[in-house]
Amino acid sequence: MSKIGVLIEMSENVVKDANFGIITAARAQGNNEVFAFTINGEAADCKDAVEKYGVEKVVDLSADGADLKTSPDAFAQAIADGINHFEIESLLGISSTVGRDILARIAVIQDASLVLDCIDVDLSAATATKSHFSGKTFAKIKLNGQFKIYGIRPNVIEAQTDACQAEIVAFQSSVKDSGKLKVVELKKSDSDVVDLTEANIIITGGRPMESEDNFGILKACSELLGGAVGASRAAVDAGFAPHHMQVGQTGKTVSPKLYIGCGISGSVQHFAGMKTSKIIVAINTDKDAPILGKCDYGLIGDLFEVVPALTAVLKETQI
Amino acid sequence: MQVYVCVKHVPDTAANIVVVGGNEFDESVKSVVNPYDEYAIEEAVQIVKQAGGEVVIITIGKEAAITTIRSALALGADRAIFVKTDAQFLDSSLTSKILKKAIEQDGSPDLIFMGKQSVDSEGMQTHYRLAAAFDMPVATEISDFTLGDGKAVVAREIDGGIKEVSEITIPCVIGTTKGLNEPRYPKLPDILKAKKKEVKNIDISEFGEDLNSGKNELVSLELIPDRGAAKIIEGSAQEMAKQLVTILKQDERVL
Question: In this structure, are residues A276 and A258 in contact, taking their beta carbons and an 8 Å threshold?
Answer without folding.
Answer: no
